[in-house]
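user: can you give me the structure for this one chain? C-alpha cells are fine.
assistant: on it. calling the predictor now.
[tool input]
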Amino acid sequence: MKKPDSPLIPLAWLLGVVVLDQATKALVMANFAMFELQPVIPGLFNLTFLTNAGAAFGILAGFKSVWRQVFFVGVALAALGVMFFSYRQLCRQGRIFAHAIGLIAGGAAGNLLDRLRFGAVVDFLDFYLGSHHWPAFNVADSAITVGVGLFILGSILYPDEQGKSVKC
C-alpha cells in the first residue's frame, strides 16, 4: 500500500472540506428562510435550511444551552486533537488513513465553526422517500461519514500493515 507523501494530504482535505462546508452553508443562509424547502428531486431530495443544536439526529438538543455548547465544542476540539496526534501513527498504515483523517478533521472543524459562530450546526441536505425523511445534514457531516468509511475500509483491507515503521 502506498504511504502518504506528506502531511499535506490530510491538511488539503481539512481545508477543502471546511471551505466547501462553510461556502455551501453561507449560500443556504443567504438564499433560504429557516425551514424553507426547495425540492431538487421530488420524492427524494430537498434543499432546506435548518439548525441543529444537538449532535447527529438532534441528540442532546434538549440540554441547557450553555452546557450543551461547552460539551459539543469540547468534543470537537478533542476529536481534532486525536486526529492531529494520531496522524503520525496512522500514516504508517497507508495513504487511505491520511485521507480519512483529513476528511474527519475537516468535518469536525466545519461543524465546530458553526457551533462557535451560531451556537448550532447549519444543515441543508434533506433526503427522503415518501414521508420518511433522513435527518438533514451538511457537507461536514458527509466528510466525517466518508472519512469513517475510509478508515473502516483501510482497517479491513490492510490489517497486516499495522505497526510497520515507515517514515511519515
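assistant: here you go. The longest helix spans residues 65-91. The CA atoms of residues 63 and 116 lie 17 Å apart.
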